[in-house]
Every structure is written in C-alpha cells, then in structure tokens.
Predict the 3D structure of the following.
Amino acid sequence: MGEKLAVILVVDDEPDILRLVDTVLRQAGYRVTTARSADAAVRAVETMALKPELLLADVVMPGMSGPVLADQLCASLPGLHVVFTSGYDDRQIVQRYVVEKGFALLAKPFTPQTLLAAVQQALASPQPVAAS
C-alpha cells in the first residue's frame, strides 16, 4: 500500500478533467498537484517540497505541449514516470511524440478505472528514456 502514496503531477488545460482526475487519484490515496498549463506545472515542480513520481499530462495544450513538458521535467527529475492523455485522434502526433518515446497513452474520455489502471501500470514499470 505504500506505493499508493506516490506524488502525481496532473497537467490539463480543461478544468473539468483536472477536477475529475484530482478527485479519483486522491480517493485512491495518491498525493496530487494539478496545473492548468505546462508553465504552471514547471513552476509547481520548482516550488514543491515533494517531487512528483508521475506526470499525467495532456498531449495537446496551449503553449507548451505535454511531450515538451515531459522532456523538460524528465531532464531534471530522473526516473519520472509519464502518462499522456489525449482527446485528439491525430495518430502522427501521438505516434511521434508519445508511442515512439515509450510513454503510456490514456485516450479521452476515460473512466476512473482506466485512469487508475494506467497510473498503477506506469508506476510499476521501469521509466523509458525519452529521446532528446
């Protein structure tokens, strides 16, 4: 059960998604920090006392994309696990920036059960090294 105390950083520009994910993860026992943009996520990591063990981020967001954010955070947080979410069915973007780098992808819309399964699987897996 100690694993459930993982710190998770959730980044999505949709407030409803953030609230849902925050609620589901907290009820499952995770410690959660949310951000509505990649820039806010970077600031949160810089000021967090506890560093996140998992980044759960939308692929497509205004400003910095989820994959660029992941590359930036993985450089400063070795061992950071990453799960991307996406409501877009753009196979080229998903293939190039998510699948080819070995990251997990959770398609929107998702259920609380599939969210928890993706988080648990990511935390249990060795972290892939993202290409720079």
